[in-house]
Amino acid sequence: MGDAGASVMFATAEAPGRFNLLGEHTDYNNGFVLPVAIAQHTRLRMQVNGTQRFSLHSDQLAQRVEFSLGEPPAEHFASYVYGCLMLVEGLMQGLAPASGLAGLNIEVDSDVPIGVGLSSSAALEVACLRCLRTMFGLQMDDVALAQLAQRAEIEFAGVRCGIMDQMASSLADTWRALLIDTRSLERRDVPLPADSAVLVLDSGIPRALAVSGYNERRAQCEAAASLMGLMSLRDVRDASALQVLPGLLLRRARHVFTENARVLAAGAAGISASEFGRLMNESHASLRDDYEVSTPELDQLVALLQRDRRVWGARLTGAGFGGACVALCRSGDVAAVAQSALEGYAALGHHGQQLVPTDCRSA
User: Fold this and answer.
1) pLDDT, tens digit, for every residue of 283-308?
2) 347 burial class (0-12, 13-18, 19+ CB within 10 angstroms)?
């Protein structure tokens, strides 16, 4: 990041949510992930208001919150914006001690679904930081912006997240996957296998990372790595090395080790749709059995998709504990697969819906 440039009185910006094809719970273990941006975006409008206070309004939540930098907001959704403001304030003070953030009116409008695992929080953070970058002329590239967004979520929203969501929101496209090495932040585009397209369905079971087992799973991974004398589970070279771990930590570490291998296999040139789908099915089983982040409803919806001959593979997407699932379908069959799966899901007593009109499909 370089010096700040001239500031402006008004700015707008937007950022997308994401779904993840493979690589769940690997990013905070310095592993590999394969996200895709979605068409839905969070849009922010900021304007200097001539005071030292901040007014934040969300159309989607029908909430208005007022706060100052020395008075953190009580509302959880506002903590993501507050974190971004605090970090940019610190950055500006570091560049020019006499500078700092003046009060802002901030309007948020979003069609990214909340609480289903499509990274609505990362979209909010990235859009907020893009606005601030424009307003204050900050010399911050898209990777540095994603890193700052991750810090905001960890330090101010209490979610010990990895970098995947913010990197995807800042850098990914809607028509291809982005394979990210979350240790080095090296990345490359990965096209979908031939004759395939993506479907994302909501299980109807909401999730909330900050109050779920997410932070607990991260602590378990850190404990497993420590017992093995490693900096992170990314450094496990052979599955046999996991046998030194007690049962629970063994299962957690086994998921991370096998999930990293699945992402790298999916990123190989010329992979077939059936092989890619097999990797997705294995990922869901691992998330269900070893990582224990699925739910009965997610398992039922995924099973309906997996039994459909028009589907190559399916799995939960996002951190789990409810939320969404993703399926790799035959091109041209996405709408029919969605209807069939949702009708079967309704017959089991649940209400789901199709979430993402995606253009992520093979050429």
Assistant:
1) 999 999 999 999 999 999 999 999 99
2) exposed
Per annotation, catalytic residue among 59, 109, 142, 165: 165
pLDDT given at position 7: 75
Q: DSSP characters for 283-342? A: HHHHHHHTS----HHHHHHHHHHHT-TTEEEEEEESS-SSSEEEEEEETT-HHHHHHHHH
Interior angle at CA 239, CA 238 and CA 242, nearest 5: 110
pLDDT at 95: 66
Residue pair 138/13 in contact by the 8 Å Cβ criterion: no
3-state SS assignment for residue 227: helix
pLDDT at 349: 97
Q: What are the two backbone dihedrals, phi and then psi, of residue 284, each rounded to the nearest 5 degrees?
A: -65, -45
Single pTM value for the model: 0.92
165 in catalytic set = yes
198-252 residue pLDDT tens: 999 999 998 765 457 888 999 999 999 999 999 999 999 999 999 999 999 999 9
CA-based nearest residue to 325, from 10, 347, 350: 350
CA 24 to each of CA 57, 117, 148: distance values in angstroms, whole numbers, following the listed order: 32, 11, 21
Dist. CA 269–CA 167, nearest whole Å: 23
Those residues of the chain that have pLDDT short of 50 are: 210
Structural domains in the chain, CATH included, are 10-187 (3.30.230.10), 192-354 (3.30.70.890)
107, β-bridge pairs: 45, 57
- With tokens 């699932």, the residue in question is 325
d(CA 165, CA 68): 27
Locate the DSSP E strands across 49-73. Answer: 54-58, 63-67
Give the chain's mean pLDDT.
Answer: 93
DSSP type of residue 61: T
Beta carbons within 8 Å of 208's beta carbon, 6+ residues apart: 115
For 30, left (φ over 0), alpha (ψ -120 to 50), or beta? left
Q: Which residues contact 167 (CB under 8 A, 6 or more apart)?
A: 35, 143, 146, 178, 180, 182, 185, 187
